[in-house]
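Anyone able to model this chain together with glutamic acid?
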Amino acid sequence: MTSAGRFAPSPSGELHVGNLRTAILAWLFAKSTGRDFLLRVEDLDRARSGAEAEQLRDLQAIGVSWDAAVVRQTERGALYAQAIDRLAVEGRTYECFCTRREIQEAPSAPHSPQGAYPGTCRMLSDAEREIRRASRPASIRLRSDVTEWAVEDQLHGKYVGVVDDFVLRRNDGVTAYNLAVVVDDAAQGIDQVVRGDDLLPSTPRQAYLATLLGLQAPKYAHVPLVVNHDGVRLAKRDGAVTLGDLAAVGVPAERVRDLILESLGLPAGTLAEALLDFDPASLPKEPWVWTTSSSRLTSQ
Ligand code: GLU
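re: yes, here you go
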C-alpha cells in the first residue's frame, strides 16, 4: 500500500476558511513528501444532508484534489466492529452504563487527570452488569493500562497527554471517533496525519489505541487554527467565512486560496506552485487571525 496523507472533514455544514486552510496544509504536507492524498468523510455523527457534496465542491474550488475514491465512515462499520471485537477478546474492553451527568458528578479517581473517565464501571461484577443492562444500553470503553502516552509531533515536538478508559462505541451503537480514526488511517495506508491543533489532546489516546491493535501510529503534524479577532476558533457565526458567503460579497474561491497561501508565507497561485516553496519548518506557529475587512479580501 502506498503511503498517504489525508483530510477528514465531518459533514456537519460548509467548510470555513479554517477548515480550508487545514485541508491545503494537509495536501501540501502529503505532496511535498511524495505521498498520496486521500479524503475521508467522517459522517458517523453530526452529518447534515447535502454537506458532503458542498465540502467536496469547495475543496476542489480551492485546488485540493485527492488520489482515490472518497471513503465514508458510515460504510465501514464492519471494520470498526472487528477492531472492537479484537480488543474485547483480549479483555481490553468493558461495558459502561454511566450517564454524562454521573461522570461529571463522580469523584475523580486518585491520581487520575482532570476530565478522565473515573473508572466507575471498570470493576462491575457480572451480576451488577446484568442489572444495569436492564436499565440502559451500555457504551463500550477501552480498559487502558496507561494514564498518559507520548507522541511526537512534527510541529509541537514531544507531546504527552491523557489516556483514560475512553469510549470505543457509544451507547447508541455509533462507533466513537477515536476508534474509527485509528482503524481508518491504518486501513487506508495513511501514515501522515495533518489536522488542526485542537485535536492534539486526542492524539495520545489514538496512538496508544493503534499500538493495542498492532498498528503503526502515523506521523503527526498539528497545525495552528484560524481564529476570529477575539482569538477564538473561527466559527460560522463570525460572518463571511465560507466560500459561499465570500462569493456572495464578491470574493472568488481563488482569492480565498491566495489569502490562505499568503497566511502561510507562500506565494499566491496554484497549490502546485505553492508546493515548490513549501517548508514545514517555516510555517507560522501562531493561529491566523481572520478579519473580514473587504479591502483586504478583494485587493489582489
Ligand atoms: N473529522 C474531524 C473534524 O472534522 C477531524 C478528524 C481528524 O482529522 O482526525 O474535526
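The chain has a mean pLDDT of 94.
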